[in-house]
Every structure is written in C-alpha cells, then in structure tokens.
Design a protein that fits this description.
The complex is a heterodimer. Chain A is an alpha/beta fold. Chain A folds into 2 domains: 118 residues, no CATH class; 107 residues, 3-Layer(aba) Sandwich (Rossmann fold), CATH 3.40.50. Chain A contains 13 helices and 8 strands. Chain A is globular, with a radius of gyration of 18 Å. The chains are: A alpha/beta, B alpha/beta.
Chain lengths: 247, 489
C-alpha cells in the first residue's frame, strides 16, 4: 500500500527521529512511503490562537500538496490529524469548494495507531523497549486522538505487543497533560500544575517511563520531568515499536 | 394567604444599587494548592460517579435525546415562552419579563415591598447570582438568607460560589467546622458532619418560618402546563417555594422546554450528568400558587430573564444556551481542577462559564479572555450531557475576541508566520534557521550548558516555557533535510 507521510511541523523540527521511525515501521509493515516535500504545517497554532485568517493560507498549502496525492495520509501526531479532520471543516465553512476538498482529505488522513490497526489490520506489530528490560511504563492518552478522533485503545494495544517493558495503569489517565500548544506559554503555571499531576500519577503507579503519541505532550512532560529531576523517561510510541528505525 | 399583610411597610424605597458585572476580576492563572486538593477530591468522586452512570443507561443515546430537547427549546424559544406565560397565568401566577438584570431585581424588590418583606429566604440559583440579586436586596435593606447548606456557608464567609452545583467545593470540612465554630461560639469536629448539618438546619429553619418571601431558581419550565421544575439535593428549595407566603422564581428564558416528554428525560439527565444518579434527592414541580384551602404560597411570581440570551440565540453559538447547569464540564476540566471557580472571576466558571460569560457580555470588559482558560483538550465537550461543542466554541470565541481587541505584536507574529509557512520555500528557510544554521546562536541564548538536546533557558516568547520546564532544542537536521539526504526527491 502506498502511504503519503504527513510529518507535521513539530516532528520535522524537533522530533525528526520520530519521523524516521515512522517511515521505517510503515515500510516494515509493507507500505511504500511517499513524502510530499512541499508540505509545511496544518495551521493549528494560529487557528487555536484565534487567528483563523492566518491559519487558512497554511491550511491551503496542506490542501494543495496533499490534494495532489492519492491514498492514505498518515501522521505520527493525532492532534494534527484532528485539525485536518475537524478544524478544517470550520476553517472552510464559508468556502464550499475547499470544504469539499478538506472533507475528502480528512477522510483519508489517519493517525499512525489507527492506520496500523484499522487500515493495515495489525493489532500488534512487535517492538522492543529501548531501555532496561522490564521497565514499567505508563501510557499517556493524547487528548485529540482519544476525544478528537475517537481512537480509543489502539495505541495501548500496540504497546501491549512491545517486548522489554510492562505497562502500568495510572489513575485519571484521561486528564490533559497541560501542553495545549500556546496554552503552555500563555498560562504556564496552570499548564505546569497539570504536567505535575500527570507525572506524579505516573510515579505513584510505579512507572519509570511515559509513552504517548503526541510530540507536544512528550516535549511538555519530558521538559517538566527534567526540570524536577524525576526518574521518568518519555518516549513516542514509535520509539518502542521501531527502536532501530532510520531512513 | 394572598392578601397583603396589614403591618407598615418596613422596606425603604427602591434605590439604585450596584449590580456587579459578571466579571469581578481578571482571570487568575495560578493554581491555589489548598483549593486544588479539595477540587481533585471532588472531581475524582464525580469521575467515578460518571463512570457508574454510563453503565446505567445508553449514555450516547441519552445525550442525543437531551440535546434534541434543548435544541428544540432554543429554536422555538419565543413561542414556548408565550405558551409558558399563558399557562402560568392561567394557573394563577404572575409572569414578569425582564430584559436586564436591573429589571429582574426591581421586580423582586417590588414584590418584597408589596408584602412588607424585610427578609427573604433564598435557594441557591446561579441566575440570581448572575443578576446580583443578593446585593440588590441587601442594598434595599432586605435581609437575604441563602438556605442551601453550602451556599449558606459561602454567604457566611462573605465568599462567592465556585461551582455551579457545589458552591463551596473549594472548601474542606475543616474550614466549615472552623466557620461554624466562629458563628456559634462552640467547637465543631470536622468529622461530625451530622452535627455540622444540624447546626445549619437549626439556624435556617427559623428563617424559613419567618420570611414572607422565598426566592428560587428554575431548572426547567414546561411550557405546555406552566410547571416550574426545580431539582435539588437538600430540600431547601422545596421549603423556599412552599413555606413563605410568596414564591418568586427567577429563570433565564432559555430554561423553557416544550413538554413533559422532554421534562421527563431532563429531570433524569441532570442528576445523572451531575452526580451519576438517575434521580435527585428532591424534585419540586410548581404549577401556580396554592389553590384555595391548600398549604403553600398564595402568590407566585415568575421572572423571565433575558439579559443577553436572545442575542446569543441569534448568533453562531446558540448551542451554548442548551446548557442545563449540571456542572459536569467544570469537574471534567483539567484547568478548572487546578485553579478552581474563583479564578475565572465570573458567576459562571469552568468551560461553560468561559463560553457563556463572553456571550452574555457581548465580549465587553475583556470577558473574551476567558476563552484562553482552556488547553482545548475536549474533556468538557465529552462530559456535556447536551453535547455543546464547548472546545470548538472556545476557539471561535478566541477569534472573535482577537478581532475585537487586536494584539498587535501577536497578530504580526502569526501574520509573518502565515506568509512563511504557506510556502514550502518559506517553511524550509525557517526550518533551516531553527535547526542547523541557528543552533549555536540558540544554545548561546539558552545560556549554554550541556548540549544534550535540552535547554534550561530560551529567548522570548519561549521563556514562558522555560520558567518551569526545560525546552527541547530544535533538531540540528529536520526531517525534511534527512529525507532529502537519504531518499533524494
């Protein structure tokens, strides 16, 4: 199956190795990965900050680049998929032509776990924890993947197939980690308190690592864990599914 | 009982009172640890109750039916209000239409004057909080007693409610015991809730028996029969609406619903969403004043408050009027659970407050800034029993607010960003700048330190991040460049 890779700006600029492992994993699962090089961002930062008019040209770019492709579009970042699926519908509410294009693209844009489970039909794809054998890990649900995309339980299912770690349950796993894009900078104290609650609950559950699918959450939780010198490592799910992955 | 008392009118003539605006202070953006502890406990209980509730009914089907009842009511509001007015009047009640908070308060004051009331017993009602009724009555020399136990506590502390359903959720039992100890001069054991409750009951019962006027809110008003439904957990609403000679009910006009089929669903949905139970401890149904020979108030006044609601109904966010004030979005919200209701500085707190307040105020007085009290995680929308798309509305409100009150520097930043990132050349130039080319400069601005891919300091605006968190450095080689290097074009 030929797959169009939507790398997203944060993975491109801050977590490129997550992108490399995504490519490697998809290829291991038999996909041909195409990377439309003209892509930039989905426009979510401006859209969520109250600037839809500045978000639209960036979203236009997404429509143009991916509109010229065929087949599934896959991103290792649920929040950006949520933007394409749902944010675009509101961004183009007044423009029937682009709205139709956005809907068509949204229907074939998938977050990585949903694509692997629903489209490729794998509940588990193996993998190995890139650290000490038997490390207890807590899974952190990405808000936009669970509530935005309804992709419930799929990442956890994939995590169950990973060797070398044990998954521990945390209380109130549904709570946001406090990243929220510009929210983290606009309300830093509230955002930090939210991260602390998340980290403390992971520690209380005996976890030594947190795994998630959202590079924003990862950056936030790891940045806070480092500042507090907590014995917690933070990983993207794909770091476990494809630990040796490279281009 | 409908005749006015013979004694002279002790109430001074109406004076202009200060009705507080809905914003009492700008939103506070810091957690208060003592409050947070109480909130986490309460929200934890709510979360467990909700999980249980979902096993009792087909939750999604129930939400959709509740949404449909409310959407029908909002869509047909003018005709349903006319019908409600007809039916309440036919049952012997008086209906007053109030366009503003001041008009609504004036109606209550004139009813008090007509009955020579110098004291009023009041059941917890967010609508009367919204219009500042206590301040208006107090300003006219009328003694107002809140009869909901926790609202009474909040009033005795000179505090304000911090949650739609649980006004004192920010307080602990220890704080309540301390307060009652101060009021009564006797010590109270925080563990002895029975004694705490019976102390408040003793104080409140006297007031119920002596006040000529009782004021309540309304949860749902059934247009087809003119019946006012009030849902509560303590029984004080029932006492307020049955013991005094006069019952004044204050409702926002959006609380009207078409018929009993809808009411039957909502009286179960409200406690289910709020507490995870299908029935509230007390549900009172009031259709007109007491009939001849029956016990109960001889007079019923219903105040239909608009105060900005008609305008919301005609706008793009009318779904916000579907709200049944269950408080679920507050408990679900990760921001509310850290900062508490007072942080919003408004009558309505939490996600629904951050939506409703700017809409009611038409974005005046910086109310639009409330829309940023959210990480947009969507927990509010998921919790809402009438499916208000709260997170989407918060985003819409942010746009409306920035259109009304532009932030020049921020707008310029996003404008420049938009120009660059809407072209692949511009995007790659920024990527290269953020990565390889500027990496040494970034490290310098970040104060040096070990080059392990993280910085403890960063230049503005990222300094807001690094105050409490390390920042991950931009990758020296972004993915785009890696792909080109390994895979070509």
């Amino acid at each position: 199956m030929r797959v169009q890779l939507f790398i997203t700006c944060l993975v491109d600029l801050v977590y490129p190795e997550v992108g490399e492992r995504t490519v490697s994993l998809l290829e291991r699962l038999g996909c041909e990965v195409v990377f439309p090089a003209g892509q930039t961002c989905c426009g979510q930062p401006a859209y969520n900050s109250g600037y839809p008019d500045h978000a639209r040209p960036v979203a236009d770019r997404f429509l143009e680049v991916f509109g010229a492709t065929e087949g599934p579009i896959v991103a290792p970042f649920g929040s950006c998929v949520h933007m394409v699926r749902h944010g675009f519908a509101r961004l183009y509410a007044e423009d029937p032509q682009k709205l139709a294009a956005a809907r068509a693209l949204g229907a074939r844009t998938f977050d990585l776990p949903s694509f692997i489970v629903d489209e490729l039909g794998h509940d588990q794809v193996g993998g190995r924890y890139p650290g000490p054998e038997g490390t207890p890990v807590a899974y952190h649900d990405e808000c936009h993947m669970v509530r935005g995309l309804g992709s419930v339980g799929k990442p956890q299912g994939l995590l169950e197939g990973v060797q070398g770690c044990t998954v521990v349950a945390t209380e109130r796993g549904d709570l946001c980690c406090g990243f929220g894009g510009t929210f983290a900078i606009k309300l830093p104290q509230v955002s930090t308190a939210m991260a602390d609650e998340k980290l403390d609950r992971a520690l209380a559950a005996g976890a030594q690592a947190i795994v998630s699918t959202d590079p924003g959450c990862l950056m936030h939780l790891e940045g806070r864990a480092r500042r507090r010198n907590l014995p917690l490592r933070v990983h993207h799910l794909v770091d476990l599914l494809e630990p040796e992955g490279a281009l | 009982m409908s005749t006015s008392p013979a004694r002279p009118d002790p109430v001074p003539p109406l004076q202009v009172v200060h009705v507080p605006t809905r914003v009492h202070h700008p939103p506070r953006h810091e957690p208060v640890p003592a409050v947070t502890v109480n909130l986490h406990r309460a929200a934890g209980n709510w979360s467990r109750n909700r999980a249980r509730a979902k096993t009792q009914v087909d939750w999604e089907d129930w939400r959709e039916r509740a949404r449909a009842v409310r959407a029908d009511a909002v869509e047909h509001m003018p005709e349903l209000l006319d019908r409600l007015q007809e039916q309440v009047t036919a049952a012997g009640g008086h209906v007053h239409r109030a366009a503003t908070a001041e008009e609504a308060n004036e109606v209550v004051l004139s009813v008090c004057r007509d009955h020579g009331a110098d004291s009023v017993v009041k059941a917890k009602s967010m609508t009367t909080e919204e219009i500042g009724l206590n301040e208006a009555l107090g300003g006219a020399g009328i003694d107002v007693v809140e009869t909901d136990l926790v609202e009474y506590i909040v009033q005795a502390l000179g505090d304000r409610p911090s949650h739609i359903l649980a006004p004192a959720v920010h307080l602990s039992a220890g704080q309540v015991a301390e307060l009652f100890g101060r009021l009564s001069g006797e010590p109270f054991d925080p563990q002895d809730t029975e004694r705490l409750v019976s102390y408040a009951r003793g104080v409140l019962r006297e007031r119920f028996l002596s006040a000529p006027v009782g004021v309540t809110g309304v949860n749902f008003a059934v247009a087809e029969t003119g019946t006012l439904i009030v849902v509560e957990s303590e029984g004080n609403v029932r006492l307020c609406s049955s013991l005094p000679r006069v019952h004044v009910a204050v409702m926002g006009i959006e609380k009207v619903i078409r018929d009993w089929a809808g009411a039957a669903h909502l009286v179960q949905m409200l406690p289910l969403a709020a507490h995870g139970r299908l029935t509230a401890a007390y549900t009172s149904y009031v259709t007109g004043p007491a009939r001849d020979g029956d016990d109960g108030p001889g007079e019923l006044h219903l105040i239909l408050l608009d105060d900005g609601r008609s305008q919301i109904r005609e706008g793009p966010m009318a779904e916000a009027l579907n709200c049944i004030r269950c408080g679920a979005c507050l408990y679900a919200c990760p921001v509310y659970r850290q900062v508490g209701g007072h942080a919003y500085g408004t009558t309505y707190a939490g996600p629904i407050g951050a939506v409703l307040t700017p809409l009611l105020e038409d974005l005046a007085d910086d109310t639009g800034e409330l829309a940023w009290m959210s990480s947009l995680c969507g927990a509010c929308t998921e919790a809402c029993p009438v499916k208000i798309p709260l997170d989407e509305q918060l985003v819409q409100l942010r746009a409306a607010t920035r259109e009304r009150d532009p932030h020049r520097a921020e707008a310029a930043l996003f404008s420049g960003w938009s120009r660059l990132w809407s072209r692949s050349g511009g995007y790659r130039a920024t990527a290269a700048t953020g990565g390889r080319a500027l990496s040494p400069l970034w490290r310098k601005l970040a104060g040096g330190g070990a080059d392990d891919g993280w910085s403890a300091r960063a230049p503005f605006p990222f300094s807001g991040w690094t105050a409490t968190r390390d920042a991950r450095d931009p990758a020296a080689e972004p993915f785009h460049a890696r792909w080109r290097r390994h895979r070509g074009r």
